[in-house]
Write a structure and sequence with these properties.
The complex is a heterodimer of chains A (341) and B (328). With 341 residues, chain A is α/β, with parallel strands linked by helices. Chain A folds into three domains: 130 residues, 3-Layer(aba) Sandwich (Peroxisomal Thiolase, Chain A, domain 1), CATH 3.40.47; 73 residues, no CATH class; 118 residues, Peroxisomal Thiolase, Chain A, domain 1 (3-Layer(aba) Sandwich), CATH 3.40.47.10. In chain A, strands 3-2-4-7-1-8-12-11-9-10 form a ten-stranded mixed beta sheet. A two-stranded antiparallel ribbon of chain A has the order 5-6. The radius of gyration of chain A is 19 Å and the shape is globular. The two termini of chain A are 23 Å apart. With 328 residues, chain B is mainly beta. Chain B folds into two domains: 164 residues, no CATH class; 151 residues, no CATH class. Chain B has two helices and 21 strands. In chain B, a hairpin with a 4-residue loop joins strand 14 and strand 15. The longest helix of chain B has 12 residues. Chain B is elongated and about 80 Å long. Classes of the chains: A alpha/beta (341), B mainly beta (328). At the A-B interface, helix 1, helix 5, helix 6 and strand 5 of A face strand 1, strand 5, strand 7, strand 11 and strand 14 of B.
């Protein structure tokens, strides 16, 4: 849906993205938030609303977001919220909150320290507890089954998937990669995301305030997210209807986009999402390297929106960012960002 | 190098299965697989609601399989501890005969070369079935179901509840200032950190001033007094949940340190019976002998390192009605 109040991304920052950090999640957030605010000349005292996205299961601590509040400077008491979702959904909540019109500045974050546990053992426990978690249904298995469906539909093949990997990571050759063995047929190591620790923080501002803070705000002109049912048994895995509906609702069809940042953790997901979104070859997809280069779970989606905003800050006109959650692209979020002359 | 502290966290869940999943699980103990009618189709596993519309489905359960056809599959060359088989196997979407949706299930095929779309498979049942999806140990190529070992028969009662234990090992970095606090406690020092921005002092090895988001270093360390006053307290009557080691009611108190603005939360008391715990009681720190000292945090605040709690100092109690408000 559109919005009558101008709400814009005015800045963002991410921590170093590494396989293993010695910093706690709170420390990551302290640094990301400071790095996002400082270039704008803002302090934590200027922030009217915060919304943090993180996951207790990844952190290994119930109510871990309470500890993360140490990073936002919550004194005097502040308006604050939390989503057990990627920071992209925290951004959605902040965007809704700013539409009330009584406040001007919001900070949202996404943070995940995946190296705290073993993702291969944690994610199966987040699945349906009756039919899926007890058999250890894991993300690689679901991704492989979706990849097979996408290949069968003619949307991808192992070579085009390897091409996505080479382009995203900026290294290797397709032929070399295709000589590797499968980790889950038809997926090879290069089709699979890295395990990454990191956090991101983003600053939103309304109307005039946004224009005073930066020369070229990245206006959010469309924002929507939709979900499908949980169990992939009941879904068409060679399609992503929730992505399509969210994109329509966000107004993707109202005009061309120059860039798209897609949260495609697996190579075939990028090809499926491109197809569902109808992105032509003229659209630059995941110039950042995407989730295949750095995959800080709970921040990966927010980083997509950040990179799309960078395109607008740099003079671009219209950009699309996508985030996802759940097995086989269960839930999908689309954010359209625009610059104005 | 930052120290990592390893914790095993176990969440024991007990779930109600409801009328549809419960019937499915009960049937598994009878070596039968149920689906549910949804219009012209049959959903397996059965759902209480139409996955597309959310409409509640009539409880029209029908038996499917037991054999079925592989619609898609992937090979798991290195199973984890959570996987149902300890040797390489296939995860497959198995369309059971009579079903219109595929069930995700392990197939014990020996080799990926034995797997193919269209492969006919049948369940290998566990001999002892308890009403869980894992009563199907896996599927095997062929038309005929098998049973592992002795068949102990169906459940005596309908299966209504499922226990599920989620256990995960986490490795958390210990902030360096926390180790400084532990080390100081070995020397019977109560070390805090003073924020250079707001001048507030924090105890317990908190790495960050939560007001100014300032990250502490050794330079901000300050020694704190070992005496204080109880400002508030709670008496906990322990519930015997898994992991609870206390059996008798016990107190946790908040201690305002003398001459400071520092409150320690959830502190244990020593030589202070529960009935004598009160706001205003004067206390002093109790330190462990080296043999008793722990290297870990007490959780929810609590004590740390060689600080093990607080005992009455014998001084007269403080009579101040505002004390009770000081919990941080």
């Amino acid at each position: 849906m559109g919005t009558s109040t101008d709400i814009a991304v005015v800045g963002w920052a991410q921590t170093e993205m590494v396989r293993h950090t010695e910093l706690s999640e709170t420390q990551l957030l302290v640094r990301a938030i400071t790095a996002a605010l400082e270039p704008l000349g803002l302090t934590r005292a200027d922030v009217d609303f915060t919304c943090l996205g993180s996951c207790d299961y990844i952190t290994g601590q119930a109510f871990s977001f309470v500890g993360n509040l140490d990073a936002i400077g919550a004194w005097p008491p502040k308006r604050d919220s939390h989503v057990e979702m990627d920071g992209a959904w925290a951004l959605y909540e902040a965007w809704l909150r700013l539409q009330e019109g009584d406040i001007e500045i919001a900070v949202v974050t996404g943070s995940g320290r995946s190296s705290t546990g073993d993702p291969a053992l944690i994610y199966p426990m987040e699945m349906d507890p009756f039919f899926l978690a007890p058999i250890g249904a894991d993300p690689l298995t679901f991704a492989a089954l979706q990849a097979r469906a996408v290949i069968a539909a003619g949307i991808a093949d192992e070579r085009s998937m390897a091409e996505v990997a080479v382009r995203s990571r900026g290294k290797g050759s397709v032929d070399e990669l295709l000589a590797d063995s499968y980790v889950r047929q038809p997926l090879r190591r290069h089709d699979v995301p890295p395990i990454t620790d990191g956090a991101a923080a983003m600053v939103l501002a309304t109307g005039e305030r946004a224009r005073r803070l930066v020369e070229r705000p990245a206006y959010i002109t469309g924002f929507d997210h939709r979900t499908e049912c949980h169990n992939p048994s009941f879904r068409p895995l060679d399609d992503s209807p929730s992505t399509r509906i969210a994109a329509e609702a966000a107004g993707l069809g109202d005009g061309p986009v120059e860039v798209a940042e897609l949260q495609a953790a697996f190579t075939h997901e990028e090809l499926l999402l491109r197809s569902v979104l109808g992105l032509g070859d003229d659209v630059v997809v995941n110039a950042s390297g995407g989730a295949l280069r750095a995959n800080p779970i709970m921040a990966t989606g927010l980083c997509r929106i950040g990179h799309a905003a960078d395109h607008i800050f740099g003079g671009g006109t219209r950009a699309l960012a996508h985030s996802t959650s759940g097995p086989c692209l269960q839930q999908n979020l689309i954010c359209i960002l625009e610059g104005r002359s | 190098m930052t120290r990592l502290e390893e914790n095993l966290i176990t969440f024991p869940y007990r779930r109600s299965l409801g009328p549809v999943t419960g019937a499915f699980m009960t049937a598994l103990t009878e070596k039968r697989i149920l689906g549910i009618r949804n219009g012209d189709g049959v959903l397996v596993p059965p759902m209480e609601w139409d996955p597309a519309t959310g409409a509640e489905l009539p409880h029209d359960l029908v038996e499917v399989g037991p054999a079925g056809t592989v619609e898609s599959w992937t090979w798991v060359p290195e199973p984890t501890e959570q996987h149902p088989l300890g040797r390489p196997f296939a995860f497959a979407f198995v369309r059971l005969d009579g079903a219109s949706t595929p069930l995700l299930a392990p197939v014990d095929a020996g080799s990926p070369d034995a797997m193919a779309d269209g492969l006919r498979v049948a369940p290998r049942w566990r001999g002892e079935r308890v009403g869980r999806i894992t009563d199907i140990a896996c599927f095997v190529p062929g038309e005929e179901p098998e049973v592992e070992g002795d068949d102990l028969g169906p459940a005596a009662e309908p299966v209504a509840i499922m226990d599920y234990v989620a256990s995960i090992t986490y490795r958390n970095p210990v902030p360096p200032v926390f180790d400084l606090v532990i080390e100081a406690s070995r020397q019977r020092r109560l070390l805090g950190f003073r924020c250079p921005v707001c001048a507030r002092v924090y105890v317990g090895g908190r790495a960050v001033c939560p007001i100014d988001a300032y990250e502490f270093t050794a330079a901000e360390g300050v020694d704190l007094p070992h005496t204080g006053t109880i400002t508030n307290f709670v008496v906990v009557t322990p519930v015997q949940y898994p992991g609870q080691t206390e059996t008798e009611p016990f107190a946790r108190v908040f201690v305002l340190l003398d001459g400071t603005d520092v409150v320690l939360s959830y502190q244990p008391v020593i030589e202070l019976p529960v009935e004598d715990v009160a706001v205003g009681v004067r206390v002093s720190a109790v330190w462990a002998s080296p043999a008793e000292a722990s290297g870990s945090a007490g959780g929810m605040g609590g004590t740390w390192g060689s600080l093990i709690g607080w005992m009455p100092s014998g001084e007269p109690a403080v009579d101040d009605p505002d004390l009770v408000n000081r919990i941080f």
